[in-house]
Amino acid sequence: MDDIEILLTNDDGIDAPGLRKLHDALSNVGNVTVVAPADDSSGVGRALSFGRRNSVGGGSEINVDWDEFSYEVPYKEHEIGYSVEGTPCECVIVGLRAFDRAGPDLVVSGSNPGPNVGVSTFHRSGTVSAVIEAAYLGVSGIAVSSDGAEHDDAARFAARLVEHTTRTDVFDTADYLNVVVPSGATDYEVTRPVSDYDMDAEFNGGSFKVHYPKLKRVALKEGDMPDGTDENALNEGRASVTPLLLPHTPCEVEALKGLYI
Asked: Which of 31, 173, 239, 261 is the most buried (most CB within 10 A)?
């Protein structure tokens, strides 16, 4: 096939080591265009700068044209692409729509310096949300994360996975893949995401203190997770590849019928 056209982004900022590692690895398998946030935008999920006072990940004031429902997203050219004062999803929208050329075959996001595992993480993570945005816009994607600051193994495996998915029918079934590669992993597993979730909060003098117990458990690789899940693979040192479809499935609820306005 012709050279693979890859759009690369992340949520940690264009100068993050994980993005550079991924850029270098992917450049060996295709043509890479980088459109990434200027600064760290971790945890913003599918947020847009629209409606905010200042751009997410930047310092520019947001001026909205309310007649057109449009707004400016400042950027600077960077040695490996475009540094955007916006969210990961805005970077994807720009990368897929703003350029006068054929669109990319695939969007890759990462590599994140922390494992994105579990369904409760996907819409919170800017890394995963970027490929969810791409899937809504009709382009498949791969979200990549490691279990720390070392990204070599994640980048190598991601490049191999990009080659594989673009010459097979993986994306005839899946909309996007979430990939977690622990350092030193020598095997991988096709997984499903863990589904548990918990948050807590308390008064802390003049503020509220918010606790994220699941994130702490994942970071410390604590607890026995069910076989076949992404978190179990992480805890046992295997890479996980989780195929996913776009969410929000409608359902019938009989008790909602008969209402009137």
From this structure: 239
Q: In sequence order, which residues have a C-beta less than 8 Å from that of residue 12 and are 6 or more positions away? A: 18, 19, 37, 40, 41, 42, 112, 113, 127
**131 vs 41: CA distance, rounded Å:** 15
Topology of the domain covering 4-193+224-247: Stationary-phase Survival Protein Sure Homolog; Chain: A, (3.40.1210)
Q: What is the 3-state secondary structure (H, E, C) of 134-180?
A: HHHCCCCEEEEEECCCCCHHHHHHHHHHHHHHHCCCHHHHCCEEEEE
The dihedral built from the CA positions of residue 92, 93, 96 and 98, taken in this order, carries a sign that is negative
Q: Mean pLDDT, to the nearest integer, of 156-171?
A: 96
The candidate with the shortest Cα–Cα distance to 199, out of 189, 207, 209, 190, is 209
pLDDT tens for 182-219 read: 999 999 999 999 999 999 999 998 999 999 999 899 99
Residue 111: asked if its preceding bond is cis (omega within 30°), the reply is yes
**What single-letter DSSP state applies at residue 186?**
-
Evaluate if pTM is beyond 0.90: yes
**CB distance 43 to 10 below 8 Å:** no
